[in-house]
Amino acid sequence: MKNRIEKIFERCRDEKRAALILFTCCGYPDMENSERIIQGAIDSGADIIELGVPFSDPMADGMIIQKASQIALQNGASLKKVLAMAERLRKRNPNTGFILFSYFNVLLSYGLEALTDELARIGVDGILSVDLPYEEKAELEPLCKQKGLHLIPLVSPATSPERARLITGQASGFVYYIAVRGITGVRTELPQELIARLEEMGRISPIPVVAGFGIGDPETARKIAKHARGIVVGSAGMSLLVQEKPLEERISDFKHFVKSLSGSLSPDA
Amino acid sequence: MNSHYGIYGGQYVAETLLPTLYELEYEYEKAKSDPDFQAELKRLLKYYVGRESPLYHAQRLSRHCGGAQIYLKREDLNHTGAHKVNNTIGQALLARKMNKKRLIAETGAGMHGVATATVAALFGFECEVFMGAVDIARQAPNVERMEVLGAKVNSVTSGSQTLKDAMNEAIRDWTARAEDTFYVIGTVAGPHPYPAMVRDFQSVIGLESRRQCLEQCGKLPREVIACVGGGSNALGLFVGFLKDADVKRVGVEAGGNGLETGAHAASICGGRVGVLHGCKTYLLQNNDGQILETHSVSAGLDYPGVGPEHSYLADEKLATYVAVNDPEAVEAFDLLARMEGIIPALESAHALAHAIAIAPQYSPEDILLVNLSGRGDKDMDNIRHYRQRTQKTTAQHK
Ligand SMILES: Cc1ncc(COP(=O)(O)O)c(C=O)c1O
Q: Which residues line ligand 1 (CB under 6 A)?
């Protein structure tokens, strides 16, 4: 039987488009509205949702996600609550991909055995831990394999082709190519060599390569999507949600943005 | 090179940084057996830092405590006023070998920031230091020193605005600029190879102390005592005595308002195992794995983690860790100033307070060796504010 993530990438390939992967900071502004925001993203065309579990010290994140994480934590977000939300979202959205996304300490503190059991039971498809590189994955990877969860690896502009081969060779699901050297946040300019690197990763990796970090608008998304199997957008969407405006307006701006991203990926865009 | 200490340590950082860590490990391994590198390091430690630092018998203080003889390893007499420079010189030499243009550092008390700004000036690097806004206010003299030395001090206003947040910000900068930037970490924490490398650069403290103690006293101390923030001065001291089964190694953590209040920075005494800033170690965190805000009168100890090798030494009972609270540290600060004419850093005063407390349990033939990791000039404002705060609360209670 094909797993859900494989099916999503197959479906996208059939539709001649890249997958749209959306990162959201769970629990922002609070758990209830966060669930509405994620449902909004799915209804607006997101294929896969990265369920970002906020961490007090998000070292790989820029200002926007730092701010959203802090507010989410102040308003009581926790991994436990995110799992409860994921269970409801899964029931309503059987075909959407869900990847739990966090810093390793949050996962470790919950208990890796208990967490992977729970994710498998709920039907979350995988885990991405930003600060768990190839060198440290041994603690989590066997548990993921055993329970049919993908442990999504990252590769970066600093990763050599040999290392990328090593990383992607043992992975399942998809591999996340970090488009820029640096932290999350919207960039006005992406590196010159990005497209060449994406093409190279596409040749090296046996699983789909998606690109993320810094993608801020539908035009950029459309350009990059020609060279990747998916694009990830995080800070750009979150930046609309952290505006000083009534919440309903922010959510509507966000959904509109996701729709425009999704539109930009269709083959006739 | 070993990247783990039992279950502790490791390289828990974003993929973007891994190639940089490999490059650093490679260069550091080479430098260890490179006679030119070692000679240059030795030369600078002698003529620039002023090593070796004295081992001083604090006779009046010892008599006052009644019991063991208290000896102070005078790292406060190093150039820049703390042990931090032993490490920044080593890392700057590596940065030069690796052709980096720019040094960055996190700092709490400002001593590591000053030591980094100093070597940046000496070697001609650009330098930016990240420092929490709370620490900028309580360690103002060091901010001015860094600026005079030509470094840019970036105020960090996220989170608790102290050392932990400064380190987050330094890591963010490094992730974006590792190609031209060398991150000078100030303690035995962070991803491998930093904990091992910083320990090695600080081991001069323990190696010198052991030899000096034998020369001056004809015997080894009963205990070697050092404060533990991230743990670099303590580990530097301990490694000199790790093979001496009869020497007790004691790390003193910041007890703040007391372990029972939750307002402290004692990661080993009051924390549980987790992952922060690239390594697995004891951490102060809540049940959800969120890092807690810490408290200590001493900015250099005000950190929710600890170097991974200390976590290992603690589990294996190869070293003992205790906590000293703010009032006792301030009392020791005052006592050393009045009895010996030495104003210690508030960090070092924690180690001293523990020695003062246990000295009466020993006899006058016994030696307690305390690492006086830094001098207290930077703490004048901090101490004044502390006294104002505590006087106010005592007045309220009356
Ligand atoms: C004088 C002094 N001692 C100790 C420390 C704590 O660091 P470590 O535990 O790494 O020695 C600091 C840190 O700023 C310091 O300035």
A: B 82, 108-109, 111-112, 187, 227-234, 300-301, 345, 347-348, 373-374
From first to last of its 269 residues, what are the pLDDT tens digits of chain A? Answer: 579 999 999 999 999 999 999 999 999 999 999 999 999 999 999 999 999 999 999 999 999 999 999 999 999 999 999 999 999 999 999 999 999 999 999 999 999 999 999 999 999 999 999 999 999 999 999 999 999 999 999 999 999 999 999 999 999 999 999 999 999 998 888 888 999 999 999 999 999 999 999 899 999 999 999 999 999 999 999 999 999 999 999 999 999 999 999 999 988 77
Residue of A nearest to B14 (CA): A131
The CATH classification number of B17-46+84-194 equals: 3.40.50.1100
Contact residues, chain A, for B159 at CB < 8 Å: 56-57, 70
Write out chain A residues lying below 8 Å of B179, CB-based. 181
**Cβ contact B20:B94 at 8 Å:** no
Alpha-helical segments (H) within A77-183: 79-92, 104-110, 112-122, 141-146, 161-169
Instruction: Count CB neighbours of A55 within 10 A.
Output: 27
User: Residues near B140 by Cβ (< 8 Å), separated by ≥ 6?
Assistant: B381
User: At a CB cut-off of 8 Å and minimum separation 6, what does A33 contact?
Assistant: A247, A251
A80–B15 C-beta distance less than 8 A: no
List chain B domain ranges.
Answer: 17-46+84-194, 50-81+203-397
Q: Which two tokens stand for residue B9?
A: 């340590």
The helix or strand, by DSSP H or E, that contains position A265, with its residue range, turns out to be helix A247-265
ipTM for the predicted complex comes to 0.97
Do domains B17-46+84-194 and B50-81+203-397 share one topology? The answer is: yes
For the domain covering B50-81+203-397, report its CATH number: 3.40.50.1100
Domains and CATH numbers, chain A: 4-9+18-151+224-256 (3.20.20.70)
